[in-house]
Design brief:
Blueprint (H helix, E strand, L loop, with lengths): L13 H14 L3 E6 L5 H16 L3 E5 L31 E5 L13 H4 L2 E6 L10 E4 L6 H12 L5 H14 L8 H12 L4 H9 L5 H11 L2 E7 L2 E8 L1 H4 L4 H11 L7 E9 L2 E8 L5 H7 L3 E2 L3 E7 L2 H17 L9
Parallel strand pairs: 1-2, 1-3, 3-4, 4-5, 7-8
Antiparallel strand pairs: 6-7, 8-9, 9-11, 10-11
Helix pairs in contact: 1-4, 2-4, 2-5, 4-5, 5-6, 5-7
The structure holds manganese (II) ion.
Length: 346
């Protein structure tokens, strides 16, 4: 990071310039529709609620929404600002300003993508390297560990005080997107400290998000983990470890339980790649990928029509489970042939 004293006037780094432009866009808006991606995680919904609370506090008419599921995931129901959440059908038909948060591509909005062409301005705030640039104004920084980091920087530029509620929303996304502060810079640790100073109680906040599963989760895990397959040498020298969660496995359980599987499986893949295929309908799969460090799974996912981060990404597939794995292995082989989709830098 450049020291302020070393910076020449008029030569702001692009991201700081961009933060000011975005702050101006927000300052001029009487209303704002803030959208998270489908099946919102703590970073997507937390970022939207944090920005929503900040704008609402300034007298802006705010609606926060997402297309699926119909209600807020149970694990995120304690994030402050729930009163700002509006069902998709109740959103303005022709919004002035739409802000998308943590949304890498228009398709990730589900049916709410229909708002993009009718909105006067679409502002995209995101940290996915694969962001497709579908808005009018973009605050996209792949070096930000969470979209919440960008929102925090934006609030500072806007002169908004980060109170305990806003802090909780930001902290939830920060803690989960960094895998409990594993993938994190010292600057983001300092941000986390600020948020705790503002009133966040990490253990109370994160308990429902990461540490609360129903007992039936264990039976699902025993089946899903028991059928995991390890393919040595599928990723250069490294392994691919994969399993699937069928509709039958997931019956009666929440998305939170299904999504937890990959965090267990990935611990067995070394520096290789982990894939968990989640069945969403007969012959329909949403495939989550994780990298242990040797490969950039955003590149692999992008080659399969998906996207994400270098360490966590995903794509959709139609067909049976063997065809999911065959397609993934072909993409991994193609990336090897192309010189390896290695992660650059430390
Ligand atoms: Mn995120």
């Amino acid at each position: 990071m450049t020291e302020p004293g070393a910076r020449r006037a008029g030569a702001l780094p692009p991201i700081e310039q961009r933060l000011r432009e975005v702050a101006q866009v927000l300052a001029g808006a009487p209303s704002a529709v803030l959208l998270a991606h489908v099946n919102p995680d703590a970073d997507a919904l937390g970022s939207a609620l944090a920005l929503g609370l900040a704008l609402h506090g300034r007298g802006v008419e705010v609606a926060v929404s997402f297309a699926e599921p119909d209600i807020v995931p149970q694990s995120l129901a304690q994030l402050p600002g729930q009163h700002l959440i509006v069902r998709p059908d109740d959103l303005p038909v022709r919004p002035g300003l739409v802000v998308t948060l943590d949304v890498a591509a228009a398709e990730r909005l589900g049916r709410l993508r229909d708002l993009l062409p009718v909105a006067r301005t679409v502002l995209v705030i995101d940290h996915h390297r694969t962001n497709s640039g579908f808005g009018d104004v973009h605050l996209v920084d792949p070096d930000a560990e969470a979209t919440g980091v960008l929102v925090a920087r934006l609030l500072d530029v806007m002169g908004v005080r980060i109170d305990a509620d806003i802090a909780a929303d930001l902290y939830a996304g920060l803690a989960t997107d960094t895998v409990s502060f594993r993938n994190v810079t010292s600057a983001t640790h300092r941000l986390a400290a600020r948020l705790v100073d503002a009133g966040v109680r990490p253990s109370e906040l994160l308990g429902p998000i990461t540490d609360a599963h129903p007992f039936g989760w264990l039976a699902m895990l025993s089946g899903v983990l028991g059928r995991a397959v390890r393919v040595p040498g599928a990723v250069g020298e490294a392994a691919l470890v994969h399993t699937c969660v069928t509709l039958e496995d997931a019956a009666g359980l929440r998305a939170e339980e299904v999504d937890s599987v990959i965090d267990i499986v990935r611990t067995t893949a070394g520096d290789g790649v982990t894939a968990v295929a989640k069945q969403t309908a007969p012959e329909h799969w949403q495939v989550s990928l994780r990298s242990g460090g040797a490969r950039d799974v955003a590149v692999i996912a992008a080659s399969l029509g998906g996207g994400g981060h270098s360490w966590a990404a995903g794509f959709a597939h139609r067909g049976d489970y063997p065809s999911v794995i065959a397609r993934l292995r072909a993409a991994l082989d193609a990336a090897e042939t192309a010189g390896g989709a290695g992660i650059a830098g430390p």
